[in-house]
């Protein structure tokens, strides 16, 4: 038994079919809509197409209609889905639904699964994950959490403000992180709550206008004001919210990387096509050394992303926390994917910044990934601290 | 007599007043409009404000109501104007009008100056510069020019297609570059023509949707089809168009750098303010080493841009072609300004990619500068070739 | 069956023992000798130690006293050996012997194996690979080969000049690449010859003084002048030398990466130890954000190297040419390893450039790796060309 | 009066003669000695040559036999001297003598000037500046100074340890920084002392082996043990040592930049010559795009260095502290010069890392400049802090 990088035949086949579906069904819709699905009709049509193609919900257990892929399997399939901005929506593996399903499957009670996971898995409803708060609340530092949940008879009352809550517009429910004990700045004491969209205590205050626009359901500012939920709304155990967030976080980081790696590959393919076809100064663009350097650097970046994602996914599949390897992969991928798209824009020149190609759109969509799911700086800090602790532990022996 | 970096008192005072005008008058308008002037009313109001503040048209000769600044003077004043996306429009020094005025002042006949330069200098009309063509025409390689002007009795007939013609929507006239002799691929044989907007042979085909949106009058695709102009429409001498383009190009490159350097400084100021005020992990954001590195690197980039711009401007003011120093400055500035804005986004985190700040807008606006006025790759190629020729000349001695 | 990154227990155990041997036996010798083995005594002592520790010659088949590791197994073990500059010499896996053994095992006749491979595998003799020539001969472009072998009765006569022939001083034999047909600039027509050290036609002209010094046996300039060898000296088939060079090249590139990755890890460990222990401005060096960034970036680089090496090794073990993945891995690793060592120097400050640590030595040793085994630029050119060919093939369908 | 970049005719002429002297006299000596002057004979011959050429001691006042150049003048001349590793030694403007002369001229008493400055200015003696201490003493943080000077009748007794004291071997005297009040960690309380080489209380403990080797007189570890000096040994005022260090520091940083910029230009010229002459894949190396990119990037770096040096020098000549602009210039130059030399190595390939060219030597010599005179990280920290203080001051208004 040695290291083996051959994907299982099932995964390979599902990835192949996903690639085909994206190419034939999704990309035409994407190109016709500037990369943004702006209506429920588009979402429904894409998801219906994915079901027909047998590629829908690859990550969810078969009992919920999915393919039950582990993280390594997702790495192969999500990258293919991510080849179009609308691929993940079509397969029902877009953020934040995908991460929420992952967490619900791991933590929710049977009843919660029936009520929330099942319709989510089929695409009948969508969801959001309400964690981030405006400064000085929970942002790069989750421990700064200020939203409070206080005990009321038969349940809890949630009060606080959340923002950049992706997908909240139109979501059937929110998973809200609130402090049930301790004070902002302390690392424990958070609890996750399932809040139905029709709860009068949860209000969408505004769409936050952002550089990126393709994540379905927008980035929303939510206010929880006297938002009362029953005991059954607690997801997992009280005061264990930060631990569950970690359960969600590592895999969610990786699936972001997988999807955006798909866009990086797409950008590279667009640029390579341009380099192959455009003539300049008497030769093909792709025969000019500086263009070759851009192409090669992107090829290297893409390969390195894939290696780092695989390493982290394999650790996650072993049941390890993989906090170091997911931090490493997330930091590198977010920056490498950005570089790849930026190089593609440069290769395509004025066309690259025009709407005639989708590269400008891609550039806008991938930039925030260097910030969400932990800014690169926060991850670097965490990576270095783990290295130093490893050293200290060794030195203490 | 030694090297002296003290700006003249007049220039220093004009720069100071420009900075004040931008801060007090322009930025409020910019922030209320997401950085984009979308109506003639806004343009008129801004330009009227600049006239009241005595900062209008600093680059044009006093006989046309301007301040007659040389390139070094422009470096100081344009940077201050560029501190807001709308500052250059307000001062009437936005591209492409500013470069067109520069060229008309240098080349046009007295009559042409009265008819085109005077109303342009006052802001009564706008203009565009129709050079770039879709592949395989004039782009990174101007010599590939395919638009033709053929002799007709009493004038010329122009036929061809141009795109990415900035400011063409609403412009009073276009300066159109067309081939009057030779074949595409040859470096001579171009002529510049002044074409009035109401010439039925010149048609705007479409607005090209681009990543950037703040340059007034859009990026337009123009078709010249049986576009007849009289002999008086020739700007300068027949067949000398490429030489004049060089007259325009060097200075126009530099004024782009100056204006965008203003935006870089603005982005840095926004980020520094955020770093000074935001608390994270128990300290000011600006006390964290990685944030300090971002701030310092941007400070270095800004200082280096200024030094390179100054060098090139000084050469231009000596009447030198300054082709090497403007290539160097353009390449470095376009990339450095981009880095500065990108770092500012990163420092501000999720706020940085939201519409609550203008940084995402700045990022979109400065990206194309690495492509227009010569892509970085083309400039690097030209820089290296000049270095090699310099070596060959030395070696031959 | 899915992707599996668990190393086999045998490999894991050999890697563990190698690490222990390097730490306990090799590093003391390395530190006492400034990283350079300057005598046969040192080499003999180290190799004898490796034999005692049961870690000698891990790459060679068991019939020659080795462990028969495939490329994936080498990746794990060579990295541990490379943790010291003298580890590879100790294990008998240093360049160029290691690559020569690999090739002899694959190509040589039984008789040649007994005569050359067996004593090489035991460390009784050393060898060199005489391919590179001074300009305008075979360098970045192997096809420029000018050394000639001409038919003489019963054998061949070799004439030409080679340089940068690593390990030639004291080698028992050379594998010399010479042109048996065709002209310089043509890609075929090369043959490999086994030339004994005592052949009077092969002379060492000089030691080339280089930035790096740790590769045993130096970088030598060799002259072949009327060097007559018998027919049995031909390695493999006549005129097939370039094809065999490819057999050697891919794996040799990867084993270079593995060994130097070990040094990168070592440099990182030295820097982390320093960052953990040194106090500055009232805190541990490792608590300063910019130092954390350096540490994290190196951690990321090391992880990415490992992923890329593994991918290429797996392909090689499948019997694939792996030319793209070895080019990608080589280019990235050579540059990343350099960055890691450079960052370690920076973290350690003045100590980092002093002989009190070995980091300055490491910096000198790894720099040439961005040049030998194909300069980064040549690999990028090859990578981009393969991408473009892939596109062309697809587009032609 | 406007910004003017024309050097004064005197400076231009001295720079021209310096360039000529370096080319004709210094470089042959440098190339014959691997860039390192290893004997007093070499030093004497070079300095005698510089006197004959009328280019000796350009920075010292005419009353001491120099040319009395201000900082802007030095920028032009020192860069030419720095074009060879031995140029600064020849002109008597090498570190640390040059900085010491600068400080003595500014601070010393008339008597001290006669005794120390005059023979230093003529090259009859050399000197060193004993400030840096092993951890946890004065290094990146000068305030950590631990060497003590205590009052004794008629003078002071100095005790402490210094290291990396450049030029100490053979120096006629040392300027030693010692704490006369306060505790390590406090920013005041240091005094500078002139200590004669024959003082029995000052002992050279060892030559520190370093990556760089060309600075004459080595990097020495010095022990001050019961080192008694008279009151006249105090340079300037007691307890004002840190302030004087600043007087020395800003200009010394800049002269380092100037000299090393000369080496960067030299490296670029060597690489360009190679690129112009070497044929590869059927064209000149310099016609390959990736090589052109390396050349262009170095050209840009060199130009940017020059602009930043000039800005800082101009500020210094105005009598300003220029702490921000010298930090900016030092940080950028140290890194840019390193990049330029590294690119030159890469362009020259295997020749670049061989002793046949001096590029490997240059690489070794310039690496430490990113560490001494303040590591890049310390400067970045200082730069950012000044920016934040500027913001705070504005915000407080």
UniProtKB/TrEMBL annotation, chains A, B, C, D:
Names of required cofactors: FAD
One GO location term (cellular component): cytoplasm
Domain Acyl-CoA dehydrogenase/oxidase N-terminal: 11-124
Keyword Oxidoreductase: yes
Acyl-CoA dehydrogenase/oxidase C-terminal domain sequence ranges: 239-388
Domain of life per record: Bacteria
Pfam families recorded: Acyl-CoA_dh_1 (PF00441), Acyl-CoA_dh_M (PF02770), Acyl-CoA_dh_N (PF02771)
GO molecular function: acyl-CoA dehydrogenase activity; flavin adenine dinucleotide binding
GO terms for biological process, alphabetical: fatty acid beta-oxidation using acyl-CoA dehydrogenase
Alphabetical keyword list: FAD, Flavoprotein, Oxidoreductase
Domain Acyl-CoA oxidase/dehydrogenase middle: 128-226
Subunit description: Homodimer.
Annotated family: Belongs to the acyl-CoA dehydrogenase family.
Protein's name according to its UniProt entry: Acyl-CoA dehydrogenase
């Amino acid at each position: 038994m040695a290291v083996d990088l051959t994907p299982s035949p099932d995964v390979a086949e599902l990835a192949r079919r996903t690639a085909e579906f994206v190419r034939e069904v999704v990309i035409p819709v994407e190109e016709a809509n500037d990369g943004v699905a702006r209506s429920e009709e588009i979402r429904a049509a894409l998801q219906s197409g994915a079901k027909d193609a047998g590629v829908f919900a690859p990550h969810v257990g078969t009992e919920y209609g999915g393919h039950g892929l582990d993280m390594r399997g997702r790495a192969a399939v999500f990258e293919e889905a991510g080849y179009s901005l609308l691929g993940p929506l079509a397969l029902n593996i877009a953020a934040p639904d995908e991460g929420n399903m992952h967490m619900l499957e791991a933590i929710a009670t049977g009843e919660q699964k029936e009520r929330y996971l099942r319709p989510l898995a089929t695409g009948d409803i969508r969801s959001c994950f309400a964690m981030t708060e405006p400064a000085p609340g929970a942002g790069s530092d989750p421990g700064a959490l200020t939203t409070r949940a206080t005990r009321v008879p038969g349940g809890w009352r949630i009060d606080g403000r959340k923002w950049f809550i992706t997908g909240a517009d139109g979501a059937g429910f929110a998973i809200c992180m609130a402090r049930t004990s301790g004070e902002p700045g302390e690392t424990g004491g958070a609890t996750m709550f399932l809040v139905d969209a029709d709860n009068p205590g949860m209000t969408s205050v505004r769409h936050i206008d952002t550089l990126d626009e393709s994540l379905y359901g927008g980035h929303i500012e939510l206010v929880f004001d006297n938002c009362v939920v029953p005991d059954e709304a607690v997801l997992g155990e009280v005061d264990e919210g930060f631990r569950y967030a970690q359960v969600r976080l590592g895999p969610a980081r990786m699936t972001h990387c997988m999807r955006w790696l798909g866009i990086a590959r797409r950008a590279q393919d667009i640029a390579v096509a341009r380099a192959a076809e455009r003539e300049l100064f008497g030769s093909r663009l792709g025969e000019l050394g500086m263009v070759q350097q851009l192409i090669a650097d992107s090829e290297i970046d893409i390969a390195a992303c894939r290696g780092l994602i695989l390493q982290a996914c394999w650790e996650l599949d072993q049941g390890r926390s993989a906090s170091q390897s997911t931090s490493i992969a997330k930091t590198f991928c977010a920056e490498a994917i950005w570089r790849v798209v930026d190089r593609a824009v440069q290769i395509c020149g004025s066309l690259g910044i025009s709407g005639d190609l989708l590269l400008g759109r891609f550039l806008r969509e991938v930039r925030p990934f260097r910030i969400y799911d932990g800014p690169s700086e926060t991850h670097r800090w965490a990576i270095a601290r783990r290295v130093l602790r490893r050293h200290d532990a060794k030195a203490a022996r």
